[in-house]
Amino acid sequence: FGGLHRFVHAGNPPGWPGLGLVSDPKGQFDLPEGFDYTIISRRGEQMTDGFRVPGQHDGMAAFPGSGDEVILMRNHEQVRSPKGWSPYHESAPASRLEGKAWDLGEDPFLGGVTSVVYDTKKRTLVSHRLALAGTAHNCAGGATPWGTWLSCEEWIDVDDTSTQRDHGWVFEVPADANGECSMPEPLRALGRFRHEAVAVDATSGVLYLTEDEHDGLLYRFVPEVKGDLSSGKLQALAIKNAPKSDLRNWDQESPGPSPVTGDTLPVEWVDLLDIHAPRGDLRIRGHEIHGAARFARGEGIWAGNGSVYVACTNGGRSRIGQIWRYHPSP
């Protein structure tokens, strides 16, 4: 675990020809010379299914569609406000999704996922519609090798008595060009916490998950059957012979090692219990009881080239972020 600095510099140094930004006369998006952009789906527009494009566009992934089409699965990091960014309106109320959304209630949750189908050759929007509704604070997630989008709820509702259902789950949404909302079922085996993102190791089928908490953990899920996320084992990363390590590096007096750029740490994975965490304390118990290492707001995560890369938002002495590289055992 670690050693990203040496790994990067061992490769061929990349060339970065002039990539200065050119001012956009429309005031929308400055890009390097030779690049352009197209706005294909804007908040508040009416979608193909009659609902409106929700606000707070966040994590997304692109999947191949038919012909020249691409299917973009797009998160919306909203809870219950602002109401002006809601997908629901008088002609398409939330009640239309009764039995097809996770948590509507008297004050509907506005988070979820929209599927956007785009023709890359014609550069035109084909369709856009709700694919997951009634969820909260859908921040990031991850694409699976079998063609689904894992959408993460970065919200725990321990003290909120107005919810109809628990939140803090991961939902699996098919990347379907013609799909419509159906009653979602959370992937409970992946645990309940402030989920940020997921990376799937295509070779092993193991999932790696980040947690956007100042004292969060780094998790992995080992499915009983590759590709089936309904059952398996949820674990957290720990440093060998240094239980309860604090890898945030905020304080030199923190427990465990204080690694600097390029250091490599031996790790192990510890099993977690009571992963549905009704009190929202999975990370606390994982650290205090099972010895898992603490991380500073784990967010982006990507698996590839035999490694898993993790971005921690405010780790390090200056609290401006860390990048970790994990190399799984053969």
Describe the structure using short key phrases:
mainly beta; 2 helices; globular; 4% helix; 330 residues; four-stranded antiparallel β-sheet; 34% strand; 17 strands; single chain
Characterise the protein shown here.
This protein is mainly β and 330 residues long. The chain folds into 2 domains: 30-186, no CATH class; 196-330, no CATH class. Helix content is 4%, strand content 34%. It is built from 2 helices and 17 strands. The protein has helices spanning 4-10, 282-288, and strands at residues 21-22, 31-32, 57-64, 69-76, 111-119, 124-135, 138-143, 148-153, 170-174, 195-200, 207-211, 219-225, 228-239, 267-271, 298-304, 307-312, 322-326. The radius of gyration is 21 Å and the shape is globular. The chain starts with a helix and ends with a strand. The model has no long low-confidence stretch (mean pLDDT 92).
In brief, what are we looking at here?
The protein is mainly β. The protein has helices spanning about 5-10, 280-290, and strands spanning about 20, 30, 55-65, 70-75, 110-120, 125-135, 140-145, 150-155, 170-175, 195-200, 205-210, 220-225, 230-240, 265-270, 300-305, 305-310, 320-325.
